[in-house]
Design brief:
The chain contains 17 helices and two strands. The chain is mainly alpha-helical. The chain has one domain: MetI-like (MetI-like fold), CATH 1.10.3720.10. α8 crosses α11 and α13 runs antiparallel to α17. It is globular. The two termini are 55 Å apart.
Length: 322
């Protein structure tokens, strides 16, 4: 065999793929055991508080009696769903829930994205960290405190902001009892409390943008706005799409605590939503099966929205949830 043949054979041998030997799953488990220990609390949380309670939806098809339990209570099929859809309050509750959800999606969902883009443009690291700290703090404030602050500022009986408005216009505005102001107040509270916290994911995504793309754009004469529009936003579009899908999964969840705290007898016509209705029917009136049927109706809408939005996002060329 000539030298040329030996060289060809040697080159062929060097290009052969090297396959790693298979490792038994018990060996891998033993090697990574501490990682599984760290994973255990999260798994237990979802099993105990998320998956196990799902059995409770069975009572929406029963005339549930607590002393009889799940299996001894009378099965009534879709009777509670029919009663809910025929209830005169159904369309009012659906309208109020849908309006708040749309307000949240239109005004609150883009707010963390815009704030993250603005923070990303700050070049002084000390000032950037200072601003981030300020906008993160409201997330850790209880909604009870937020509602109390809102009351102190807006009440007609000595509210600081209302007194200021009265000094300008000569009259006070009854924000807390007005049906017209209820939804804007709810959205403003959410935006003040959660916008800063929502920037964390987007800032993490922005940290992975290739700096060379910005440098090339600067060389081409692109300003800050054009760099943001043509480089930054496309770089985080996948993250935006995934978070939008997840948000649509809880589209009908308006937040019971906040609505309950801001609701009163004068604005109840626009404040009553599915979350407060479930509380009133299930806890106050003891209609456990009926209120569970209402909650299951909300969950089904969330599943449909997640599946539909994921399909649309993938058709648009973005990565979906699955």
């Amino acid at each position: 065999m000539g030298k040329g043949s030996l060289k060809v054979a040697r080159d062929h041998t060097e290009t052969l793929p090297i396959t790693a030997p298979k490792v038994h799953w018990m060996t891998r488990f033993s090697r990574d055991r501490w990682l599984y220990v760290l994973l255990l609390p999260g798994v237990l949380y979802f099993l105990i508080f998320k998956y196990w309670p799902m059995w409770g939806v069975l009572i929406s098809f029963q005339n549930y009696q607590p002393f009889l339990g799940f299996w001894q209570s009378e099965w009534v099929g879709f009777e509670h769903f029919q009663a809910f859809f025929q209830n005169p309050d159904f369309f009012r509750l659906f309208r109020n829930t849908l309006m708040l959800a749309l307000y949240d999606l239109i005004f609150f969902f883009p707010a963390p994205i815009i704030l993250a883009l603005l923070l990303n443009e700050i070049r002084l690291s000390f000032y950037k960290r200072f601003v981030q700290t300020l906008v993160y703090v409201p997330h850790f404030i209880s909604m009870v405190i937020v509602a109390s602050i809102t009351y102190i500022l807006l009440t007609t009986q000595g509210g600081g902001l209302n007194n200021l408005i009265a000094s300008w216009t000569g009259e006070k505005i009854d924000f807390l009892s007005s049906e017209d102001w209820f939804r804007p107040l709810i959205i403003l509270q959410i935006m003040w409390k959660e916008t800063g916290w929502g920037t964390i994911i987007f800032l993490a995504a922005l940290a992975g943008v290739d700096v060379e793309q910005y440098e090339a754009a600067i060389m081409d004469g692109a300003g800050r706005f054009r760099r943001m529009w043509h480089i930054t936003l496309p770089a985080i579009s996948g993250v935006i799409a995934i978070l939008l899908i997840l948000r649509l999964g809880s589209f009908m969840d308006n937040g019971f605590e906040q609505i309950f705290l801001m609701k009163n007898s004068l604005n109840s016509d626009v404040a009553d939503v599915f979350d407060t209705y479930v509380y009133e029917m299930g806890i106050t009136m003891g209609s456990f099966s009926y209120s569970t049927a209402v909650g299951l109706f909300k969950a089904v809408i969330g599943i449909v929205l997640v599946l539909g939005s994921n399909y649309i996002v993938k058709r648009m060329g973005q990565p979906g949830l699955y």
